[in-house]
Automatic annotation (TrEMBL), chain B:
PANTHER family: ER LUMEN PROTEIN RETAINING RECEPTOR. Keywords: Endoplasmic reticulum, ER-Golgi transport, Membrane, Protein transport, Receptor, Transmembrane, Transmembrane helix, Transport. This is ER lumen protein-retaining receptor. The gene is LOC100820843. It holds the Pfam family ER_lumen_recept.
Length: 10, 215
């Protein structure tokens, strides 16, 4: 996924 | 990873620890809503579908596993454990799941970042998490004697959401293309739901009296 993506949050 | 995000994740973790502590050591789930716990188990199951598909970091993977395992084990304890389940306040925990589950699913089908199974489930989990605390807040309001651990549990959960908002503000200014209306609006709604509780929690803490919510 590109930078600036919120899917890395829990 | 910024400080707000880390602090948010830690208060989230702390809320789970407080709840497990209550269940494990006191063998009580008094004042805890099974409805809310079941909704959280669904939230994590839906959101962490990518667990074995996309690897982000060891931290990310471990935290996802912890939240999945803890949410399902809490539900198991409240439903199956022979001592814990007797302390569950079933009569007052009457919120209907379906009134939140169905609208969240419909909303996720309509508003998502991409119309794929995983993205729809991700959006569904975000919407569901925003309102999953409602049965818990209703139960607390109906509980005469809120014990400290139940109060702290909800406080830490609310703190986690508030810290995530600070995290988004920070990320917005430091990362390119960081505009995420779905999680932002859902996150703000979720945090606002705690506003009333926060007010009474902080007041009781300042005045050093037992937490009590007005009926």
């Amino acid at each position: 996924r590109p930078r600036g993506d919120s899917h890395d949050e829990l | 990873m910024n400080l707000f995000r880390l602090a948010g994740d830690m208060t989230h973790l702390l809320s789970v620890v407080v709840l497990l502590l209550k269940i494990h050591t006191i063998k009580s789930c008094a004042g805890i809503s099974l409805k809310t716990q079941e909704l959280y188990a669904i939230v994590f199951a839906a959101r962490y579908l990518d667990l074995f598909v996309h690897f982000m970091s060891l931290y990310n993977t471990i935290m996802k596993l912890v939240f999945l395992a803890s949410s399902f084990s809490i539900v198991w304890y409240m439903r199956q454990h022979k001592i814990v389940r007797r302390t569950y306040d079933k009569e007052h925990d009457t919120f209907r799941h379906q009134f939140i589950l169905l609208p969240c699913l419909v909303l996720a089908l309509l508003i998502n970042e991409k119309f794929t199974f995983r993205e729809v489930m991700w959006a569904f989990s975000i919407y569901l998490e925003a309102v999953a605390i409602l049965p818990q807040l209703v139960l607390l309001q109906r509980t005469r004697n809120i014990d400290n651990l139940a109060g702290h549990y909800v406080f830490f959960l609310g703190a986690y959401r508030a810290l995530y908002i600070l995290n988004w503000i920070y990320r917005y200014f430091t990362e390119p293309h960081f505009v995420h209306w779905i999680s932002w609006i859902a996150g703000i709604v979720q945090t606002l739901l705690y506003a009333d509780f926060f007010y009474y929690y902080i007041t009781s803490w300042k005045n050093n009296v037992k937490l009590e919510l007005p009926a």
